[in-house]
Amino acid sequence: MTDTHTPYPPELMRDVAKRRTFAIISHPDAGKTTLTEKLLLFGGAIQLAGTVKARKSARHATSDWMEVEKQRGISVTSSVMQFDYQGHTINLLDTPGHEDFSEDTYRVLTAVDAAVMVIDAAKGVEAQTIKLLDVCRLRDTPIITFVNKLDREVREPFDLLAEIEDVLKIQCAPVTWPLGMGKAFRGVYHLQEDRVLRFTAGEEKRSEAEVIKGIANAQLDALFPMEIGQLREDVELIQGASNPFMLGEFLAGKQTPVFFGSGINNFGVQEILQALIDWAPPPQARDAGSRMVQPAEEKFSGFVFKIQANMDPKHRDRIAFFRICSGRYSSGMKVRHVRAGREMKLANALTFMANERVLKDDGVAGDIIGIHNHGQLQIGDTLTEGEALGFKGIPYFSPELFRAARLRDPLKSKQLQKGLQELGEEGAIQVFELEGGNMLLGAVGVLQFEVVAQRLKDEYKVDAIFESADIHTARWLTFPDELTRRNFEREQAHRMGKDVDGNPVYLASSRYNLEVTMEKWPKVGFHATREHG
Ligand code: G4P
């Protein structure tokens, strides 16, 4: 039923409802690149298998940062892939893989409305999956699970589901179930539709899988005499013991629908696309501090979730990746940069299409645009059509690696400070100022240090060495009152620092040190994450 009193433009409501914005999360090698490629293939956005894969190998062919730099043009365009599927517009946001893994990955997840989690069926839940799912949980992002590589010798499906539930603390609702595995992988049974989709190996096939209706169908006994008995047993068990899919639970991030398949063989991929369209949410209302912003509001708004230095670092040209939260983007529009209190013209923003032949220059909530700028935009910045909003929820995470910056040429200390301040603001690395003015760098991924060292050299002409620092972890501090703050700062001065925005941080030398200090100061808040702004 449509609400005739709705204050929102109907056209905008219609366009927003068609958007699906998601990312794929997985441990390296589980099959994220393969699935990305197959989704684009089924979405009609690319014609040939191998396109995305080639980009990945180009990226991984070298660990040398200068080479990575050369690849940036490619990585900008592959950061967001937009394609149309069954009347919907799908935005697939790429999260960097493990070699260039950094805080970027976390922040990209704040800009999506759903995620597809890929699990390698031989390996189960792996370390990176746990981390990424924790980030999704900060916003209760709905998760669709794809258990991949069923064409290999893999673990028992019941075991895998139990592990997902135990380790990731999310309820599983199987939607498809494997019929055999490894060399005897015959297909999947769709629990809701009571039909078997027959597996055929092959990378290039794009036709629909053969369907056999009804689990009691005698055709199944004839075709799969060795495997069908097990499937019937399994299904009986599932129907008795496991959770049926419930849309509300999925949307609340509490339950994940689980699909089995083999990405490389194009099998199970269409079901994922269908689930994205049928179940994943369109863009939702977002908290902008003073109020919730509805996606179909007429006025444009959104936030920057990632910054990427562009191809020519000498000109300090950067692209800010901006998630639209409401209204409609049009080229040349004027917007307010809320933090800076200035007007800005969005003249040459990039819009993204997986199929690069199509040019587009509009966007609505859920879409991503890339804004060229020279450092005016930082992660977490909000742009609006006038209102002083401030979108929340883009996190800084406590770094896991620390290095002290030391100059080869001590006369360059001003440039070093300036460079680190700017790179810190951009979000390339976290920078803490210690007592006495020394700078400490914190990162989530080790490549971040390499990137920063290279950029300091290229863009600021500073040759810095990063030395290991005796720090285990950092915690942002909040104090109940001024007196506690002063007392704490006096006692702990040697373990204190300030982040780029001047917030006080406790730099613990060990887990033990952190625990002792927390016990001693029960009223002080020690926080492992902090929101921008
Ligand atoms: P990632 O992006 O998550 O790191 O994984 P990616 O898709 O690159 O896949 C990792 C490896 O797993 C690749 O093999 C890929 O071909 C393989 N793979 C992906 N899906 C399936 C599947 O359904 N079944 C099987 N058997 N293998 C799968 P590789 O040897 O590392 O690379 P390549 O030589 O195939 O390029």
Automatic annotation (TrEMBL):
<dbReference type="Pfam" id="PF16658">
    <property type="entry name" value="RF3_C"/>
</dbReference>
<dbReference type="InterPro" id="IPR004548">
    <property type="entry name" value="PrfC"/>
</dbReference>
<feature type="binding site">
    <location>
        <begin position="148"/>
        <end position="151"/>
    </location>
    <ligand>
        <name>GTP</name>
    </ligand>
</feature>
<dbReference type="InterPro" id="IPR000795">
    <property type="entry name" value="T_Tr_GTP-bd_dom"/>
</dbReference>
<dbReference type="InterPro" id="IPR038467">
    <property type="entry name" value="RF3_dom_3_sf"/>
</dbReference>
<feature type="domain" description="Tr-type G">
    <location>
        <begin position="17"/>
        <end position="284"/>
    </location>
</feature>
<comment type="function">
    <text>Increases the formation of ribosomal termination complexes and stimulates activities of RF-1 and RF-2. It binds guanine nucleotides and has strong preference for UGA stop codons. It may interact directly with the ribosome. The stimulation of RF-1 and RF-2 is significantly reduced by GTP and GDP, but not by GMP.</text>
</comment>
<dbReference type="InterPro" id="IPR032090">
    <property type="entry name" value="RF3_C"/>
</dbReference>
<dbReference type="InterPro" id="IPR035647">
    <property type="entry name" value="EFG_III/V"/>
</dbReference>
<keyword id="KW-0547">Nucleotide-binding</keyword>
<dbReference type="InterPro" id="IPR053905">
    <property type="entry name" value="EF-G-like_DII"/>
</dbReference>
<dbReference type="Pfam" id="PF00009">
    <property type="entry name" value="GTP_EFTU"/>
</dbReference>
<dbReference type="Pfam" id="PF22042">
    <property type="entry name" value="EF-G_D2"/>
</dbReference>
<keyword id="KW-0963">Cytoplasm</keyword>
<dbReference type="InterPro" id="IPR009000">
    <property type="entry name" value="Transl_B-barrel_sf"/>
</dbReference>
<comment type="similarity">
    <text>Belongs to the TRAFAC class translation factor GTPase superfamily. Classic translation factor GTPase family. PrfC subfamily.</text>
</comment>
<dbReference type="InterPro" id="IPR027417">
    <property type="entry name" value="P-loop_NTPase"/>
</dbReference>
<dbReference type="InterPro" id="IPR005225">
    <property type="entry name" value="Small_GTP-bd"/>
</dbReference>
<feature type="binding site">
    <location>
        <begin position="94"/>
        <end position="98"/>
    </location>
    <ligand>
        <name>GTP</name>
    </ligand>
</feature>
<feature type="binding site">
    <location>
        <begin position="26"/>
        <end position="33"/>
    </location>
    <ligand>
        <name>GTP</name>
    </ligand>
</feature>
<protein>
    <recommendedName>
        <fullName>Peptide chain release factor 3</fullName>
    </recommendedName>
</protein>
<dbReference type="InterPro" id="IPR041732">
    <property type="entry name" value="RF3_GTP-bd"/>
</dbReference>
<keyword id="KW-0648">Protein biosynthesis</keyword>
<keyword id="KW-0342">GTP-binding</keyword>
<dbReference type="InterPro" id="IPR031157">
    <property type="entry name" value="G_TR_CS"/>
</dbReference>
